Every structure is written in structure tokens, then in C-alpha cells.
Amino acid sequence: MKKILIIICLIPVMLTGQITRDTFDSQFFGFDFWSSNPAFWSEIYTQMQADSFPFDLVGSDAINWHKIEPNPPQNGVHQYNWEALDVYMYYTQEAGKVLELGIRPASNWGTVVKAEDIDNWALGMSPLLPDEQSDTLHWGTTAKQAWYEFIYNLVERYNNDNDESDAPWLNSALINTIIIGNEPEAPSHFFSYGGSMHALHEMLKITKRAIEDAGGDVILARGKSKSGRLFDDSPDMTTIMQRGGYYLDSLMTDFELGGDDYDVFAINYNDHYTQLPVFVDWLKKEMNKRGFEKPFIVGDARTTLCPRDNFYNGDDHILPPVYSREFMQIMENPNDPRYENTKDIHQKDETMQSIKKIVMAAYTGQQHISLQPVFSNLVSPEPMENRKYMWYYSGFFDPYIYEEYDLAAAREPVYWAMKLLANQLIGSDREVERISLGENDYVFRFNKNSDSFFIAWHEDNTAIDNATGLRKRNQNSIINLQQYIAESNVRISHFTEITNENGLPVKIPDTDMNTQNISINEFPVLIFPKNSSSISKSEMGDMNIKIFPNPFSDYIILEMEYRLKTTFKLIDFTGKTVKSGIFDSDRTKVFTGDLQEGIYFIEIKTRRRNYTRYIVKISL
């Protein structure tokens, strides 16, 4: 089963573990592990190192207090079981990564609710056992003191180890961030186990003191607040209160307790990409009202099977869904003859959703972003029926291909798209500007090495296809960047949309367009001044299809570096197929003189893959 400012002013803030950076670096990009198999971690690290994948931050909810200390101390003496965590830390150190660790307060003796009675995954947790209920006579400590000592020893062992006998292989600090709590304001995750915001802050306070006393250079995050779909469509506060008043009431209590107990406010970002700017802006205002401010990190930015919440039928979608129930059923059945084509559609959606979420994270000034679940347990012993929905289909690697071949062949388009995006963002300024153009035109300017580049897409998420009731696809817009780019032409660089049989990216050739007449759709593109020095070159796969000229007039040429069984369709703006055929040679010329001016889509299909790109007909 498988598994990364309007400018919101980002003020440099000293954290326990870091200082706000001026530019994006490799620790901005985090990717979560959801796996209990150390060999799998090593394989992932090795593959990504071979591909020069530029990330240094790894997220994991791997630590459960009960697994490290299953039994209470006796007369103040702890018996910790570090063995499993040591293996994880060892492979992480060998790969040169640092960790964002979610720590789950769950214990059969030290919390109000026993670990065995809490849902066995990263969300459920319980408050610490009160002093009066602690068996201090036998333990030699209270549960709260035991929690303090657990955190102290964890940080001292992996970030400030003075005892080589504990971990003789350790040669660097491994923990970047510790996160306490995962969506704690959700009733089923904490409150139903006796939790409250006061109990969460008490736990944070103890944790912060333990980190400081251990001398570890570690950020403590209050995590992870999930607003769900409340802010997706930028509603007013009255509407938000009607949608989720209980959630906002919980956060208000949190804010009243202040920000002294943690360094960073963590967000779970697993709904639509439009919600983050509105949510972060609201969080900052509420904090400022109470006299404090905190930086933010964002996680759980899952690529997801469903970029909208399509797991049930109902009328409470804030934005129209992308997939039908039939689509989801096909995705759950690789033996369905429609599976390959459906998977290709999903992979493209998965890729563009991930790009948008990282861009929004950069725009809102996040300290780092963690795509989750990017790595899930491809080698899980769990039965197949338990490995489906978003965790099975939302990763960098296709589990079915992995099980039949190897990890390299299983690399998906989002893997390469994220590499290109990371390579382009690293080294650019952290102040990101959104350019105000059309209402549904998302255009962001980044500065890198004194040059500007842009990431842009167009998407009206409220536009509905009347035939299906789903969000419209193939939306298009024309933007004008003349006031931002002095040159008359721009270079458009495309993110990976498909991979070939070897898991390598199929490169879409760069496109030149007039600066005043740039065509965009819902799939993001990189836009550079024609002669910019900061153009990032995409990786070239072993199947390179070229389509030119674009714009075209009387003909287009289709060129393929290697011969494969390939068909094409030319589709007009209404969805009508106006030309079709097969590649009968390495170079095929298609007559288009009888077509009207406008935007067309060319759909190309090989034996296993297909992709679509737009081209523009003009008159000469």
C-alpha cells in the first residue's frame, strides 16, 4: 500500500529549532512515511537519492508512547524500548534527512484512556493521567513526570546524545520538529477520550519544558488543526460559524490559552487548495487579537484519490466533486478494462492538486509542507481490502506495478512533477506574490537569482458540468503578463503528466507564447521570460513526443523519438473530435487548414498511457 504572500507578511521569528529562512530550501519539502517496514524506508531513500530528489524533511507519526515505554517505571527507573525507532533513525541518518515526528500520547498506564482502547492510528490520543490517579508509590513518579522524562530522553538520545553507548551510530541531530496532537479539536480524535484544550496545552507545556531541558534544537508544533472544508470557497465568518461552530469554539479556547506553550501552529491541509490562504489569514487575525503570533507549518496535504471529498453521496459538498461513484469503483478494481484510462485521469488530477497545494503553502508563508501520505506501506501485510481509497492511490509509487516489478518502474507522474517543482522553488525568495488577473486565474510570481518566474493555472471550482453534475474539466483562460515581463514572448514549461513503462517522465516540450496572450487551463505551468536564466529543464523520459508548431495554422506535426503504437485525436473547444488517426511514422503531418481559429486539445494514446495538451489555431 502506498503512500512532499496577497503577501501575508512573514516576520522573521526565532524558533526553538530554526530561524525563518529568506529562501526556500530542501527542508521546505517534507514527505510522510506511513510504513512499519525499515527495508522499505531504505529502498525509498535509495531510489530518491538515485533520482537526485531534492528533499531533506521526512514526516512520520511513528512514535507511540506505549510502544517505547509499554510498562510504567519502577521506583523511578524507566525501561525504554528504543529498538524499532533506532532502526528508523539509522536509515534516516544514512539518507541525510531530518524528521518531523508526530508523537501520540497513548499509554496503557500513563493516560486517562488506555492505548488499547484508542483507535490504532495517528489521530487518537488521550490526556495524561492526573497526578492523583498516578501510582506514584510503585512508579516513583507521576504520569506527567513520566511523560516529561520520555520526551527528555527522546530528544537527548537523537538530538543531543552524550552517551555513545545508547546510539553509537548517531552522528547528527535527527529531529527537526515534534508535533503533539493530530486534529485534536475533532471530537473523535481527542475530546472523546477525555481531552480538552486545557489538557492539550498542559501536555504541550510539559513537552516544551522537556525539549528545552534536554538541550535539543527541536521545534515544538501544536498540531494539527484541520478546518476541513469550512474555508474552501472563501466564505464570510457567519457562514463558517454555521458550518462548523463547534470547531471554531474549540480554536477560540485554544487561542485564549495563548501561544507560549508551542513554537509553531501546525495545520492539516487535506481538503481543497483554495482554503489555505483564507484559513491562515483568519488564524493570524485571531492570534493577533490575543496578543501573540506564531509561524505555521502545513501537513497532510494529501495528493488523494479525490481532490474533493467524494467518499460518500450527499449534498453537502461546498465545491462540486471531481469524480463520480462509478469512477471510484473503477479505481478500486485494477481488473476493470477501464482501469488504465481512469488511473491516467486520476494521476493527472493527483499531480496538479499537489502542485497547487505546494504553491499555496509557499504563498501563505508556511515554514514547511509535508505531502501526506506520499509514502505508504507498499509492502504491508494487511489484506488488500484494507488498502484502498486515498492511502492506496495517493503516492509517488504505483503499488500494483511495484508488486510486479520494482520501485523504479512504479514511479508516478506526481513524483517527477514534485521534483521539478522543488528544483525550481529551492533558492527562490520566500515572499511570493499573487498577481491579480481574472477571478479564477491563479498566477504567482517568484523571484530567483534576480529573475522572476511564474506558476499559473485557471480553475473555476464552482463551474459544473450539467451532464455529469461534476466540476467542469478542460477550463481555459488567456492571461496577459506584459506589465510583469518586458519581453514579447515567454517560455512555458510543463510539469510531468505521464510516465512510461520504466517509470520515467514523458517530457512535454516547452512552448513559446506571446506575453500578452498566454493560454492556461487547470493544470499548472511554469512561465519564464523567454531568455530567463532560471528556466528549469524537466527530466527527459525515453518516449519523447513533440507537437509543433504551436500556435499552428495549416498543419501540425507529431513527432515521436521511439516508435510505439500511438493514436491521436484533435478535439475542439466543444469536445467534438475534428481530427483523428495513428502515428504511421516517426513524424506525422496533420492537415488543419480547414479548422477554425481557437483552442484545441490533442489527445495522444500509447499502449499504456495517454495525455492531453492544448494547442492554438491562428490564421497567418
Short summary of the structure?
The chain is α/β, with parallel strands linked by helices and 620 residues long.
Through-space gap between termini: 53 Å
Tell me the number of structural domains.
Answer: 2
Strand content: 15-25%
Q: What portion of residues is helical? A: 25-40%
CATH architecture of the largest domain: Alpha-Beta Barrel
CATH class of the largest domain: Alpha Beta
Class from helix and strand fractions: alpha/beta
Q: How many helix segments?
A: 13
* Mean pLDDT, all residues: 83
CATH topology of the largest domain: TIM Barrel
Based on DSSP secondary structure assignment, what is the total number of beta strands?
23
Contiguous low-pLDDT stretches (5 residues minimum) are: 1-19, 379-390, 535-543
Give a structural overview.
With 620 residues, the protein is an alpha/beta fold. The protein has two domains: 400 residues, TIM Barrel; 70 residues, Immunoglobulins (Immunoglobulin-like). It has 13 helices and 23 strands. The strands form five sheets. Strands 7-6-5-4-3-2-1-8 form an eight-stranded parallel sheet. A six-stranded antiparallel sheet has the order 9-10-11-16-13-14, with no helix packed on it. A four-stranded antiparallel sheet has the order 20-19-22-23, with no helix packed on it. A hairpin with a 5-residue loop joins strand 19 and strand 20. The radius of gyration is 25 Å and the shape is elongated.
